[in-house]
Amino acid sequence: MNIARVSSQIFLGQPAGAFKLTFRLLPRGLVMENIAPAIAPPSGMGERKSVNKAVLTWVHEVESLTAPENIFWCDGSEEENDYLLGAARRQGVVIQLNQEKAPGCYLHRSNPNDVARVEQFTFICTPAKEEAGPTNNWAGPAETYDKLHGMLKGAMRGRTMFVVPYIMGPPASPLSKIGYEITDSIYVVLSMRIMTRMGALASEKLGQKLDAEFNRGVHSLLELDPERRLICHFPQDNTIISVGSGYGGNVLLSKKCLALRIASYLAKKQGWLAEHMLILGAESPEGEKHYIAAAFPSACGKTNFAMLIPPKHFAGWKITTIGDDIAWMHFGQDGRLYAVNPENGYFGVVPGTSYKSNPNAMRAIERDTLFTNVALTSDGSVWWEGKDGDPPKTATDWKGNPWTSDSKEKAAHPNSRFAVPMRNNPVLDPKVEDPAGVPISAIIFGGRRSNTMPLVFQAFDWNHGVYIGATMASETTAAATGAVGQVRRDPMAMLPFCGYNIGDYFEHWLQAGPRLTNPPLIFNVNWFRKDADGKFLWPGFGDNMRVMKWIIDRCEGRGSAMESPIGFVPRAEDLDLEELEEVSSEMMRDLMAVRSNEWEKELAGQEKFFETLQPYVPKELLAQRKALAARFGR
Ligand code: OXD
Ligand code: MN
Q1: C-alpha 262 – ligand 2 centre gap (Å)
Q2: Ligand 1 contact, 249 CB (< 6 A)
Q3: CA 254–ligand 2 middle distance (angstroms)
Q4: CA 220, CA 218: separation in Å to the nearest integer?
Q5: 298 in ligand 1 pocket by Cβ < 6 Å?
Q6: Which of 71, 111, 369, 514 is a good FRET partner for 130, with 20 to 30 A between their CA atoms?
Q7: 109-125 b/e with 16+ CB inside 10 Å = b?
Q8: Cα→Cα distances 338→77, 262, 274, 567, 625, Å
Q9: What angle do CA 389, 395, 396 make, to 5 degrees?
């Protein structure tokens, strides 16, 4: 045991009774520093037990397995949040920021070995391997439960076991789902309160019925050992178990685990769609409004696009946000697709966010925000690469080390995050709580591609659009561990999030077409094409409005385009490029070019990808591939 560290915790002025234990006995008899000591709440706090016997039984089972010091039933109240923030501060889990400059804002530093999603340790556990399919890590449920239960045995000794009830989706929506997350991380509790509709309203909605459906999520930090880190999904049991990590994408079980992996499985079974998509509203000066859903891979600008501020030339246009990351979509009786955002907050990438790139996000995170892994300035504010103004001369970096503006290291981690309630968004769409969701006029796919993919093009029809989504590729980012900047296929931006066989997922998409008598039109965008010197050709951000305007015109049946082998492509004159001096006509030509040498490679890449998925690729997509090749004369 590291006695020095344990003792320093005790002598750092912790109020008596704040911690019960600062070390713990592991099942193997080893004594380890306790990274999540139990809290000792005042009487009356954390005592709002569920009234549902199925929940009580399950919580009791997890308690018997993990042996916590105490149980804290979260009710989501303001008093509870204040108390937990205080406890988290005393434990050093969060640092309170300067409350004059950043009211309600806190900073959390994760373990430096634990800063992103771990796709290699993420598993779909189904009875048959082919249910998980060729793109997921698979493990059998029985042996995985055994393994995880072994890891969880006594894992919460000396810790508090928090029970967090939450709702995903507008509470009155038939699409919404209830989850319970059991966790030993106070940071998870604080984050879940921002990211979901958390607390008593969820347990009330679940009610007392024994067979009421809820997702069972269990999370333990264990010792944050990367060798003992696993994120496991049991779709048939509506269960998630995550161990060994404290990073949001691995441990806020509502988000990637429930709202995408488990939900996509349920969506296939129940006939709806759970997608990695933002949802925005675009209203013209004449009051014509369209809702658009867009699937971009992690850290490719979904949050920025969902909060876009149009350039001056588009005065009178209003862009509003329904969601920035996940869309649950169902089939309306009018033959349209309707979408709700299951989340209640945004967990966005911080670096690069500024009043220039995303003023609405900056206004949102001025208060009530839980930052993770950004730099701390001497005045108690936060800083990150790409923030407005000059860098501070000195700061404390994301690891807690002194940093100066001459440092070679980044002050904020490239995947540092903000968690902020969506109500802080100054352009929140008024229909965000509408139980029926909003009708979707267009679906946009898009990745980060330096070449090949033009700024925008439109699919010929639904099935062609599904092909475009299925063959999407993007350069990897810091949102997941592993190399950054490598082109990988990421169908519908769902590669890390599809909770079942990707071939069946494609089929599910194909089958959606005939169910939609008024389907959304499908488009592909690429904000990231570069010139020969490696410079971005398109300014992006607010100017993406120019592309969106063309998309809306197409939905209204009035925008023109020319037919190309890959789909309908606008000519420069079809886009509104007024007052866009920084993009010359040569740049525009390069942005829109469909070059056969690049597409030769692209076709080969798409073919290779499909080969890795065989025998599961639907025939229709193979036919689409052939037709595309033929249009290029192959
Ligand atoms: C996210 C991600 O955090 O996609 O949204 O990784
Ligand atoms: Mn995401």
Answers
A1: 15
A2: yes
A3: 12
A4: 7
A5: yes
A6: 514
A7: bbbeebbbbbbebbbbb
A8: 31, 20, 12, 25, 29
A9: 135
